[in-house]
Specification:
single chain; alpha+beta; OB fold (Dihydrolipoamide Acetyltransferase, E2P); de novo design (two linked rop proteins); 2 domains; 5-stranded mixed barrel; 3-stranded antiparallel sheet; 6 helices; 8 strands
Length: 275
């Protein structure tokens, strides 16, 4: 209740849990991404003990109907979170848990508070659904979601057109410079690093994918390049290092782990940083 005994207005929204942290002895600090609210931080009173208001839990990646009292410039209050009936139960499999944590943390680290984006919300819901499906295309959906966020930020590098003038690039060996926005044509190629066109085409195949079905089918070495390329593109926009990345890498050092992290004995391949 607000000062003076007035109850703060409550809003309801479809939301995904991005992050939780202990707050005091029984409360939780919860970060949600709402379809119409955007990213919001809330205090969930007694959430670590309540079996009524938070009966379905507040697992990272969980989707449900949130009832929130917003506080301008302050911490909101999460009064209830009811899991969506059409949302499947979250997988307890370790790989799915780690991948879910990555897309949630990436969203939390990139998007501004209170800035709604229904398209990104739908993409996040899609990504979590695929990651929880043992037959889903986990690696492609991670790369696809990274591209969704890069586009949201206006930070997706140019791949097949010059970042400076929009002209077509060299068909075989593309000049590329991160600080100039990506691929460069011959007229603007001074100082750029040469990159095989097929490598940028691999990134482009994920950029052109809708997120439905199995996704681009590429060999392991090319997938490593795409991963390194996109993580290099995302890095300047992160507000903090991603703990979930180290979890993924530790998990996937085991060759049986599979998936998007660093495989044993491999290294990230990406476009040279220095132009």
């Amino acid at each position: 209740m607000a000062r003076g005994g007035r109850r703060r207005p409550e809003v309801e929204d479809e939301a995904v849990v991005l992050r939780t942290a202990p707050l005091g002895e029984a409360d939780l600090l919860v970060t949600l991404f709402g379809r119409t609210l955007g990213r919001v931080r809330c205090a969930a009173r007694m959430a670590r003990r309540s079996t009524r208001r938070f009966a379905g839990g507040l697992a990272v990646g969980g989707r449900g109907r949130a009832r929130v009292a917003l506080v301008p410039g302050g911490l909101g209050r999460l009064h209830a979170f009811v899991p969506s009936k059409d949302a499947p139960a979250l997988s307890r499999e370790l790989r799915a848990f780690a991948c879910r944590g990555y897309v949630a943390e990436l969203t939390d680290a990139l998007l501004a508070e209170g800035d709604p984006d229904p398209e990104v919300f739908d993409a996040l819901v899609r990504a979590v659904h695929v990651l929880d499906d043992p037959t889903g295309a986990a690696v492609p959906i991670l790369r696809w979601y990274e591209i969704v966020l890069l586009r949201r930020l206006g930070a997706m590098p140019a791949l097949d057109r010059c970042a400076v003038c929009g002209a077509a690039t060299d068909a075989e060996n593309v000049s590329f410079a991160w600080e100039r926005g990506g691929a460069l044509c011959r007229d603007h190629a001074t100082g750029g690093a040469g990159v095989p066109a097929e490598v940028l085409a691999a990134v482009g195949s994920f950029a052109a994918w809708s997120g439905e079905g199995r996704g681009p089918e590429l060999d392991a070495a090319t997938l490593r390049f795409v991963r390194g390329f996109l993580q290099r593109a995302l890095a300047p926009h992160l507000r903090r290092p991603l703990r979930s990345l180290s979890v993924l890498r530790d998990l996937l050092r085991d060759p049986a782990g599979g998936g998007p992290g660093r495989a044993a004995g491999s290294r990230d391949e990406t476009v040279p940083r220095k132009a």
